[in-house]
Amino acid sequence: MPSLTEKDRPIVQLLLNTGTCPRCILRFCCVGSQTLYRRPHKDLMKDLKEFLKNNKEKEDTVCLEVVDPPCKRIRLEHAEEEPDDLNHNGALQQIPSVNDENTAMETSAVKVCNVCLGILQEFCKADFVKKVCQKINSANYQFTSFVFSVSLPPQLSVREHAAWLLVKQEMGKLGLSLAKDDIVQLKEAYKWIIHPQFLFEVSVVFAHPETEEECHFLATACPDCFKPAKNKQSVFTRMAVIKALEKIKEEDFLKHFPCPPSSPKNLCVALEIQCNNGAVFVAGRYNKYSRNLPQTPWIIDGERKLESSVEELISEHLMAEFKADSFNFSSSGREDVDVRTLGNGRPFAIELVNPRRIHFTAEEMKGLQQTINNSSDKIQVRDLQLVTREAIGRMKEGEEEKTKTYSALIWTDKAIQKEDIAFLDDIKELKLDQKTPLRVLHRRPLAVRCRIIHTMKSEYIDEHHFRLHLKTQAGTYIKEFVHGDFGRTKPNIGSLLNRTADILELDVESVDVDWPPAL
């Protein structure tokens, strides 16, 4: 049974007198009972007043009676109405305040809480929870459970710090202490009250325009804590404010901020209620039959070069079916725009961000695969399936460790006979030193990479052409192995044949990564 003890009496009395709400008082008394925070505001206020009335000699410990905790998996749309804490015009109703001398109850209007700015007063009631439910229902998401999160104004940390200094000073007079880390975090208390157990995420973003400049003095006292960032609209983030509060001296803080914090005129506002589903991952293998199709959109200096790409031909159908906001495409290596991928294809995975639909049967995935394949003759996909984020790591592991098989059509400047290329078939485990190719030097660091050609098999065509089948270490630049890249790849086909060689066509025949599982 959660309880307040005699040592909590001065904290309760002090914070009530300075305009702090009952739930914030419980936080500063380090009460960890989730159920207790869910009690209506009026009941909590009544219990705190009864606690202060109790005679110390009669009872050293007063237990706050609580009902059994409700089922965690509640249906929020049927949540029972709690007693209203606000009157019809939006102002907080009249509740008694506490007199320091005799703890007599006087009637006066309770203002918005000077610590939580009304978040633990107004935004814990069934009406607001219903708004959250309506937002979820209107967003049309598929989900079985969800995560509830809140985004709090950074000035709440400043106000909490001020209240903590006040309480710490009062307890010091009694020979007691209160560590800041022992205070129940406002976010935790709020989630306890709402207590949804709904990996779908609902996020409520709070703001309080009236007090938004209260953090600004910290920028002067601790300038190192507030540095501009590309993705941040303001330097005064919650984490930056907390870091500054850890650094600033108490005396410097008290020079700039009132202790106790003043009571604001207005409540916080809920700027928005955001719904986000956890990402869904789809994997498979693709074949690419076009020599004029890049794997990803081909954009140079802001100008698109070709109208489509492998990732777009696949993802447009997945995006439509999963109703996702965006996607991230990855694969086990990549082929050039003029290279085909044949055989059993190249493994790929697509992360679908914030999908509305997440449940697909094996038959539905098979139908989706057929839809993709019917939409274009440039690509085909196979083994399309839902996978976990962790499983994608198996695909990435194969990029450098596994082997790949290629077929290259090669031209030579000097005439060749079949016996001139036959020796290539006998070369095994040929070690190459490949300096970063000139064609990719603008996007890859300059380095010399050691790669291995495991086997080669030549197929004579005519005096100036032959086909070479190669099994190589993943990451080998095949084109450069053929023409030498002005001596940047050694040895190369040109140097082995002692003549100029160039590559006319290249096909990927297999990517030896055993993932995803064949269906």
TrEMBL record:
Q: Where is the Pus10 N-terminal eukaryotes domain?
A: 113-275
Keyword tRNA processing part of the UniProt annotation: yes
A Gene Ontology cellular-component term? mitochondrion
Kindly list the biological process annotations in GO that this record carries. Answer: tRNA pseudouridine synthesis
EC assignment: 5.4.99.25
Tell me which residues make up the Pus10-like C-terminal domain: 281-512
- Top-level taxon of the source organism: Eukaryota
Keyword terms of this UniProt record? Coiled coil, Cytoplasm, Isomerase, Metal-binding, Mitochondrion, Nucleus, tRNA processing, Zinc
A GO molecular function term, named singly, is:
RNA binding
Look up keyword Coiled coil and say if it applies: yes
- Which reaction is catalysed here? uridine(54) in tRNA = pseudouridine(54) in tRNA; uridine(55) in tRNA = pseudouridine(55) in tRNA
**Where's it found, cell-wise?**
Cytoplasm; Mitochondrion; Nucleus
Q: Give the family from UniProt.
A: Belongs to the pseudouridine synthase Pus10 family.
Q: What is the name attached to this protein's record?
A: tRNA pseudouridine synthase Pus10
Q: Which organism is it from?
A: Nipponia nippon (Crested ibis)
- Cite the source lineage: Eukaryota, Metazoa, Chordata, Craniata, Vertebrata
